Amino acid sequence: MRVEMEFEKAKIPDLKRIRASKIFVLFFLLFFISTIHGEELSSGDWSEMGNAQVGRGEYEEAVKSYDRAIGLDNYNPDLWYNKGLALTSLGRYEEALYCYHRATNIKPFDAEIWMGRGAALSALGRYEEALECYDRAVKFDSKNADAWNNKGTILTRIGQHEEALECYDRAVKTEPNDADAWNNKGTILTRVGQHEEALECYGRAVEIEPSDADAWNNRGSALHQLGRYQEALECYNRAIELDPLHEYAWHNKGLLVPTLDEESKEAFALSRKRIYVEAEPKNAPLFLFEEEKAAVLNAEDGTGNEKIPGWRLSLVIVAILVAGLLLNPGEKGRGFYINSLQSSLSRLVLMGDRSTKRR
């Protein structure tokens, strides 16, 4: 039995929080004063405006502000770096990579800039190049837990689990309260079958960040593998309580259904259906198809033997697949398994890389 688990949660850029309202007032006054005196805003003014726009989630406008700042100060690595982070937030990784390239050319020994460059390369699937960037990051700042964590993520993606584990060890040693690094270390230990050690890591993760649904799901998977089903069920329930549409927690909980009594099985099926349909009404047709499929499979002929009309079953299966495509075109968000008891595909999800603070 293989258990689904959420994998590799590496950090996204931790942007410095800026009080947008005060910044807005400040720049209104600056603009007003500069207009009176016939002066333009400085590079620093445009940079701060870009930071404020990022704080409000206005990434397109922030890129324009950073462009204005760079136009006045072309050799400032922080401006290129911040523009790269804004472009990364927009998913424009090639453009972001160019910005990080410019920044590292100006300031080649800055670990955070190399981390940003590595994150862009990772998003583009260029893992070997990303690994080189993280190698430089930890070389220039060996006590940067984020850099070790992200290097571990890349090593995991290219299948170098022992080296990845060493990186996560460095990360938690440098920053013992890094919940994500503990979670990532646990996933590696799970991959190599060290479930007791993985359980300890997940325990640290939920202790540090008790609202992390992924860590609770992973802790449940470790308990599940160890045969501690009741404890695993409690963890899956906790993950679902924190994130009602956590498909991996629902799937893993479904794997425990054979160990439940009939009443509990029915309660599980009803609660799963109710939550998914209430949260996403577009999921309702899929549950109807699931019920139709079950009805077809249970159809009997006159002799009492199970009879499965091939054409009808094929039609139902095709309808399920088409509905999934039509109802969720190109989405990468939460989904669910049509049959929660199907054999696991062991899909391990790698989250976005953790970068650094805006400057």
Features:
single chain; 1% strand; mainly alpha
Could you outline the blueprint of secondary structure elements for this entry?
Blueprint: E1 5-6, H1 20-36, H2 43-55, H3 59-72, H4 77-89, H5 93-106, H6 111-123, H7 127-140, H8 145-157, H9 161-174, H10 179-191, H11 195-208, H12 213-225, H13 229-242, H14 247-255, H15 262-279, H16 284-297, H17 310-327, E2 348-349
Parallel strand pairs: 1-2
Helix pairs in contact: 1-2, 2-3, 3-4, 4-5, 4-6, 5-6, 6-7, 7-8, 8-9, 8-10, 9-10, 10-11, 11-12, 12-13, 13-14, 16-17
How would you characterize this protein structure?
- With 359 residues, the chain is an all-alpha fold.
- It has a two-stranded parallel ribbon.
- Helix content is 66%, strand content 1%.
- The model is unreliable at 12-20, 32-38, 286-290, 300-308 and 315-358 (pLDDT under 50).
- The chain has helices at residues 20-36, 43-55, 59-72, 77-89, 93-106, 111-123, 127-140, 145-157, 161-174, 179-191, 195-208, 213-225, 229-242, 247-255, 262-279, 284-297, 310-327, and strands at residues 5-6, 348-349.
- It has a domain at 310-358.
- It contains 17 helices and 2 strands.
- The chain is elongated, with a radius of gyration of 25 Å.
Query: End-to-end distance, in Å?
Result: 47 Å
Please count the helical segments: 17
Give the CA-based shape.
elongated
Overall mean confidence score, pLDDT = 75
In percent, how helical is the residue content?
Answer: 55-70%
Write down the Rg. 25 Å
Structural class based on helices, strands and sheet pairing:
mainly alpha
